[in-house]
Amino acid sequence: MDAEWRRVAAYVVCRDDEARLLLTRVALPGLPDDGKWTMPGGGMEWGEHPAATGLRELTEETGLHGRIGAVLGVFSRWFDADESFRGEAGHAVGIVYEATDLSGDLRTAFDEGTTTSGAAWFSLDEVQALDRVELVDFVLGLI
Hints:
The chain is an alpha+beta fold. Helices cover about 20% and strands about 40% of the residues.
């Protein structure tokens, strides 16, 4: 079956001095991933390099700035229509980068109508107890 849509995204893996992982909370009311924790990142804009996407999304979602490091992996997932935010079956591919040299203040306020409702640092043990998207488990297998 052909996908009704395809999405290319970039995500960043951010660790602090305590080896905690930075996650963002999904805000997609009415969809299965709403309220779950995910990696900072998102879809590429037309003409944008994936590394630039990762940095832009990091700042938009968390308030932090950083530098792009190595590509850690490529995540690929098929979405059925009932679990897609578009309501149609599709295929998402995400390039997962390491982020380094983080600076700035972690965001604590989020506008209504955006796709992010929170950002926080978690120990790897804490991550295991979170309601999280499949991408986070993929990343846990990389780090």
